[in-house]
Design a protein that fits this description.
Layout: H1 2-16, H2 20-33, H3 38-50, H4 54-67, H5 71-94, H6 98-111, H7 116-128, H8 132-145, H9 150-164
Helix pairs in contact: 1-2, 1-3, 2-3, 3-4, 4-5, 5-6, 5-7, 6-7, 7-8, 8-9
Length: 166
Amino acid sequence: QKFVDKANKEVAQAMEKGEYTKGAERLQQLLKLFPENASLHYNMALVQEGLKDEAKASAAIDTAIRLAPDRKYQEKKKEMQRDLLLELGQKALNDRDFPKATLHYQKLTEIDPQNAPAFYGLALSLGHERKYPESLAAINQAIKLAPAQQQYLKVKEMLEINAKSR
């Protein structure tokens, strides 16, 4: 256990420096020795999240949950998915890859239906795809969840104008 704890510290230090690939390599070595260690799989999920690999992060945390089915890892999975999907959706929006952004935001609204920024991002991506009825439904949900966000109201106005001019 001391060996695993020491190695986990090394991985944590690598992650703090943003050296996710180095952390992943170290964890791969450790998982060959200790494949049933839930904390190692959880740390692998964190490293994969840092690398923006949703599939590997999800697989690693699912393994941690299977090995140690307590609520801690299940709650961490939802938190990790939420953060990663929000980040991936924003990156896709910035890259003007609107179908990809839409997919990320749709997944996020499914796992976290109270997440106003997710509905806002979904409205933006759908609006860019000229899917105005769906986009307006998404922005209305964002406004319902966070009525004080003036930015959401401005986007709604813009979407309504675009929908009418179509």
